[in-house]
């Protein structure tokens, strides 16, 4: 899931850069531009959802690791002389 979230974020970033480049020149077809922007918004929402899901999964994994470490982490005793 984290790879998917990263890829989605990368794709959104590329689309936003393309949009900014497009807006620098005269707009020929406003309807195409509206559809393009709507697509970017949908992709951004999907990317945000994937990122939130990945974050929850990583937190869950971290909590499990901490739980296991807490159950099995006795401090080593210094060697006796």
Taking the alpha carbons of the first and last residues, their distance comes to 51 Å
Number of domains: 1
Tell me the overall shape: rod-shaped
The residue ranges in which pLDDT falls below 50 over 5 or more consecutive positions are none
The class by helix and strand makeup works out as: mainly alpha
Give the % helix: over 70%
Order of helices and strands: HH
Q: What's the total number of strands?
A: 0
The average pLDDT is: 82
Task: Estimate the strand proportion.
Answer: under 5%
Cα radius of gyration in angstroms: 23 Å
Count of runs of 4 or more consecutive helical residues: 2
Largest sheet: none
Describe the structure.
With 81 residues, the chain is mostly helical. The chain has one domain (2-72). 80% of the residues lie in helices and 0% in strands. The chain contains 2 helices and no strands. The protein has helices at 2-23, 30-72. Helix 1 packs antiparallel against helix 2 (30-72). The chain is rod-shaped.
